[in-house]
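As agreed, record copied across for absentees:
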Amino acid sequence: MINYRVLAVIKRELKERLFSKTFIVMTLLIPGLIVFMVGIQALLYSTESKNLKFELITENPDLISKFEDEFKHENFVKNKNYRFVYSSMSRDEFNQYLKQKRESIIEEKLTGIIFIPSTAMKDKKIEYYSKSPQNISLSRELEGPINKVLIDAYFMNRTLTQEELDFARRGIDFAGFKVSKDENIQKEGYGNLVLAYAFTFLLYISLLLVGQTTMQSVIEEKGNRIVEIILSSVSSRELMTGKILGATITGVVQMGIWLITIMAVASSAWLTLPEEIVLNIKPEVVIYILTNFFIGLILFISLFATVGAIFDNPQDASSGTTPIIMLIIIPFFISMSIMENPNKPYAEIASMFPFASVIVMPARMSLIDVPLWQLITSIVLNVLTIVAIFPVAGKIYHVGILRTGKKPKWSEVIKWIKYQY
């Protein structure tokens, strides 16, 4: 029951946390860190290898001039200064030639050899010999021009117009349109996918950050005996309740700032995003995420606070926090896995399951329209889990918060639960 003593503890926690340097720095740092990580990733993608040397060998000598002409006009060849040497030889000759070039490839004097057998005109299977053959970005670059030459050669003696050839070369442009209860069917790009990633990372980071901070606070108060003074005015249950609610409110405020920042950036006239990554954030989604996060934080922080009460130092507490951290990490990976297909059965279950729903449900909501009954179920199940865990956590906290000295065994902790207070 929340009374004036619990409110006093909450006030103390908020005063310590909201105005602390750690809270201010982390609130500002995390969004900046995400932008920094995205920027670094973009930079890494843009700084790919240049001045590479290749040999393109084909069994069909008639294709040499076509490949040479095609690669000469490719932008990636010009921009990265790729160099190609073209030649023609049979399969047996190529096998001997490859042995001669082995040392050049190993010493990276030659980046790789592309061999196009005559069978490629039927199955489009080509061979690439290199020290690092599984170069995905290079494969993407080479695939287009090679495929174009093979298509041209295949249809050369067939009565097709240039327009028909262009159509055969062209890839598929797959546009997605979201069908929902709204009357308007709108084209959807990758904006909601970006949101799902953002929500997943922010919730994951916040749960770990707030949980670990709360546990550290409990251990410090226990170690410097401040808790003994506090317990002269409030009960252990009131202290635990106040600390959990204070930490939870702090976490929700921080998350609210992050989400409002995302909404402001998404709707800002100063930032014009490409059509395919426009962020569509509905206020009701933000309200639900904060509500679900508030309940989830109470659940997780009660576990972190309980572990903090059991042990005297963070090193010993690590054995107790491992299962809790796994309850955060597993939903994180589930959320990452549903980016390709949010309708996976396990994703639907995880989005309603206690603990997991805190991270998984916001990711699903960003990608699809989740039924109302699932949204309500996830909250109800988390509330019921809190009701079930809180009495157990309260008993452990009551005994552990004043216990110092030898590290307790888990069998002892179980006995604490059986005590009658």
About this structure: The two ends are 17 Å apart (CA to CA).
